[in-house]
Amino acid sequence: MFSSVLIANRGEIACRVVRTAKRLGLRTIAVYSDADANALHVRLADEAHYIGPAPARESYLVAERLIAVGRKAGAECVHPGYGFLAENAEFAEAVAAAGMTFVGPPPAAIRAMGLKDAAKALMEKAGVPVVPGYHGELQDPRFLKEKAYEIGYPVLIKPVAGGGGKGMRRVDRHADFEEALQGAMREAAAAFGDSRVLIEKYISAPRHVEIQIFADAHGHCIHLNERDCSLQRRHQKVIEEAPAPGMTPAVRGAMGAAAVAAARAVGYVGAGTVEFIAAGAEGLQPDAFWFLEMNTRLQVEHPVTEAVTGIDLVEWQFRIAAGERLPLAQDEVPLVGHAVEARLYAEDPTRGFVPSTGRLVALEFPRGEGLRVDSGVEAGMTVTPYYDPMIAKIVAHGADRTQALDRLAEALERTLIAGPRSNAAFLAALARAPAFRAGDFDTGFIDRHLADLAPAADEPDRAAAAAAVAALVADEQRRLAREAAARGEPAGSPWLATDGFALAGSSAMVLPVLVDGERRIARVAFRADGPVASLDGVVAAEDVRLVVADGVVYALRRGRQTVVQIDESGLDHDHGGGDGVIRAPMHGKLLALLVDKNAAVDKGHRLAVIEAMKMEHTLVAPFSGVVVEISATAGQQVAEGAVLMVLAPTV
Ligand code: ADP
Ligand code: ADP
Ligand code: MG
Question: Is 299 in the pocket of ligand 2 (CB under 6 A)?
Fold first, then answer.
């Protein structure tokens, strides 16, 4: 076994590899970019080395830097994780040339499976069923259109260099072919630097079923059962499980044998996944599945296989790379219970799944029987736009599928994320969807049910917002009481007396707030038993979890986040203390400067707009005066407390 490893990756997979490597007694060597200086994988590893700026192209994808770090730190082997350089044959070769062992397959095997057209041709020869279609060299649009007609619609156009579902186009009608082809080629050229495509029959009611294989360097190759990854959005996996619903020993035997044949055909060593598409309408059949591609690396969803087999796949990767033999024969591979994984992302399903970056103000994962959470972040860390915005993989294992799905749904509902939006509620809704639970699904399931799974948030969650307003009021009352105490005064009446919030008398007030960035008017009634907040007549709900940070309240209810803060632009609020120095009240982007130097402004005049947490925050003049200095520029990122301008009072 090795005594040290360079982990050429980041995020959850780097953390995952560190865990097993440490258990095996390896010294763990991490790398990080500017964006990851405080990342979890850096903290978990024994040592970490800087490799460059945040963009992956300038750090995690620069093979020479990684190899230089490996050499300097004396790494014996290099684990590439998934993504980045994991399927890069030149990198694998360079690692070996530098005297280290690549924890992955031989470069020739990576190359053989690297392009889908060549891989399919090879698989046909090896007797592995491939999806009917055209995967030859000719790329003339008219010729390809002819081929599509011969194959019969619907067809799928796929980049030969593809990955991550990019550039694929389904075509249903001959008349639509040219336009789809142009689009696919354009996207392929942009994403992979290679515009070539292949054409496949689009399998109807498709199920994505893949086989985990393992081969050692002594001629043994086995499979570790299947994973069903049919729940997809834009051809990307969302939920994965094992075993596949409806799987039979006959189908598993046939798929397993095909996967092992595929691996043997390219002289495979190590962990790999052979992906198949199956025609799902009649249930899984031994003669109705076809090779899609082989991923020559550890897969994102490998924990599902670990849960049902009890095998640590990363440990096996290290042992095989060190020359050990496979420890099990095919008929000794366990398959216990059912496991399901959900990919938890910082994205907003109610707005077309746009990535939602920013600071994780709070992050709590549930614990419980059968649960495993693989994450690369912690509360306080930031989800940056530079990398995949995955927050965690939530994996649930149970005695059967129902128990596993129940555990998963419950775990997702108990996951607390404040700051970025997440797909937790969407995933929980999927795990609870009756048709999916009945096993009645294919890769089109999410698209067909999207309106139910991710309803557009056209209405604010008023009951959650009201709870947040109550928290803001309580927060402010405590602050005022503290200040009064510091001055040696009695606490007195609440904040009403001290500033301009009280617009509707002393027993109630209206409070301008921003709810998810929208201006709203909340109402707070002061009753004998405390303040009661409401929004549009809706009072606070009981089932809201509140996270308060820097004057912003994150109200979390049923997997949905509602962000509430006082609308400063609606208040005559003093941002500058008494001294006329106007400071940024929070980290954010200075969207606009609304005054010029030497401008005369009245008290309450709008001075600047800051955007933080996707919300605009307007700063107003604390008194009438003249702008004597401007210290920031519009468009700039500003830190909390940064001086924006200075106002001198008019005398
Ligand atoms: P990638 O390299 O992007 O992962 P794949 O070839 O693995 O590309 O396909 C990704 C997904 O697209 C599959 O999981 C499946 O859902 C869908 N898909 C691919 N080929 C077909 C096909 N011939 N018929 C139906 N769906 C397909
Ligand atoms: P898998 O087949 O392993 O589930 P997918 O085909 O769904 O993986 O796509 C995952 C791909 O997305 C990875 O191969 C990688 O290219 C990219 N990716 C996802 N997450 C990350 C990450 N944290 N770092 C780098 N690449 C990532
Ligand atoms: Mg694939």
Answer: yes
